[in-house]
Design a protein that fits this description.
The structure is a homodimer.
Chain A (H helix, E strand, L loop, with lengths): L3 H26 L5 E6 L4 E9 L4 E14 L2 H4 L8 E13 L6 E11 L2 E11 L5 H18 L3 H12 L1 E2 L4 E2 L3 E6 L5 H26 L6 H20 L2 H8 L4 H4 L6 E3 L11 H10 L6
């Protein structure tokens, strides 16, 4: 394997990140604990899925790492850049669905793929609020901006736009949330990219936890909960209809339960639901229909 | 339009079916009423969506008809059989999600497509129980079998197999439910096919209502409700990941709310959920993993 050292370094990074994030979320949650599932991939490699259900802060969340390798599966061959008959992929993927509708759902992912002579990183993080607190969106984006700009001046603005276009539901005319960053296949020195990816990964807790701490104690009732469950339906629609990682993972024989840990715990679909004009719920819709600059 | 008379006849049929089914379901429900939404398609045509939410028997359901026509949309051109720059499509599609976990969810669809010299019918009906009552599955299949065999001896067995392969979730190794029938593009005399499609459409109430009436009064609690909501998650996974009508409809600018009325009202996703060995819940899993002959 041409990129064995890089793959090893990325594996060490994602395992370290997983440990740090799991520990910090458990400490913040106070009640929930992450279960641990180690799994093997029949074709080569495996992963460790950490899932928390029924916490005080996090209603359902997962922080997964995997390192898989082996012959390129037939369904992957045409869609995976590079050439060569073997591949390796190392990544961390997390999704946290908070219990309180005031606390935004969040997702972060960093990954390295290698095939033949080619090795490339990708990743991103985004925020999906149920109610809009402008300072929360600005904070989240500001932390990610810092991580990006320290390594590649000018990158944040580009990856923010990429995130806005990626997390989009055309059939709803809505973005998934207030965005974040999304990047893939930067084409530079892979060891420099590894430090960028590390910085993005480490910025996640600074970006999300202060928001969660700020909003978790606010009281909420049936109205906020129903809105949250309806909006979670859009999260499901995006992940199953559009998310390349989800669809590609399921099609190429990825571990179903690890991939679908991203789906929210309780979800509602109502026919033709519209929030009241002028309500806070409608204010959220406006901002996810027309992305803003936050940082 | 080459097939104008056929399209008109199919439209008359689906409107008549819609009226009959809505009336019968309302009468059986006793509490819920179908709202009515008429909509226009910018490219030509439109439809009438009938949706019932919060009924006594039906927690959420829709019985939709549409008749659309016009220039073939670019994204449709390569995937739609026939040639010619214009198309017409007429169909009825229904999904009923019952409140009680003892009553199975059901779906039925009949449709006519025409493009240039080609006109072809398609349709089907299937049953998605949360608990297995063998006599219910046999009854549902028996009614459909009657409708098929009256018109095309030998067709039921074939369309039952087509249904089993179509309503399959590869990432779960599960079929959507206990099946039914599914057929498309039969290639015969279209007017004879119209009577077949009519018979399938009219058999729906006879196939499903007696089952619903038989099971609706059974008591249920949290255990059955949670299992129902978890299984509804599989319904969502199938419709968003695999159902051609849903994906094709959303991609080609169909009316989102009419298409997604098929999604259940309340759904749960739990990480790596497995029913207890020997339980009724596990008995259901066995039958949806290995389809049986029912009629």
């Amino acid at each position: 394997m041409e990129h064995a050292r890089l793959v090893d370094a990325m594996e060490a990074l994602v395992l370290d990140l997983q440990g740090a994030i799991v520990a910090a979320i458990e400490a913040a949650d106070g009640a929930g604990r992450f279960a641990r599932d180690a799994w093997q991939r029949p074709g080569g490699g495996g992963g460790v899925t950490r899932v928390l259900a029924g916490g005080a802060l996090v209603e359902k969340g997962g922080v997964n790492v995997s390192r898989v390798h082996g012959p390129v599966p037939p369904r992957m061959a045409a869609r995976l850049p590079g050439d060569g008959d073997t591949f390796a992929a190392v990544g961390l993927s997390l999704v946290l669905h908070p219990r309180s509708p005031w606390v935004p759902t969040t997702h972060m992912n960093v990954r390295l793929l290698a095939r033949g002579a080619k090795a490339w990183f990708g990743g991103g993080a985004d925020l999906t609020p149920y109610y809009l607190f402008e300072e929360d969106a600005a904070w989240f984006h500001g932390e990610l901006r810092g991580a990006c700009e320290r390594h590649r001046p000018g990158s944040y603005a580009e990856w923010k736009r990429t995130c806005d276009s990626y997390f989009f539901l055309p059939h709803r005319g809505e973005h998934r949330g207030v965005g974040g960053i999304f990047f893939e296949d930067l084409g530079g020195d892979p060891w420099k990219e590894l430090s960028l990816v590390e910085d993005v990964g480490r910025s996640f807790l600074r970006a999300w936890l202060p928001i969660a701490e700020r909003r978790r104690a606010l009281a909420w009732g049936d109205r906020e909960r129903e809105w949250q469950e309806i909006r979670r339906g859009r999260y499901v629609e995006f992940n199953l209809l559009h998310d390349r990682g989800t669809v590609f993972g399921l099609e190429t024989g990825g571990r179903t339960e690890s991939i679908l840990m991203s789906l929210p715990p309780r979800v509602q679909w109502r026919y033709d639901h519209h929030p009241e004009p002028g309500s806070e719920e409608e204010r959220l819709l406006q901002v996810i229909r027309t992305p803003r600059d936050w940082a």
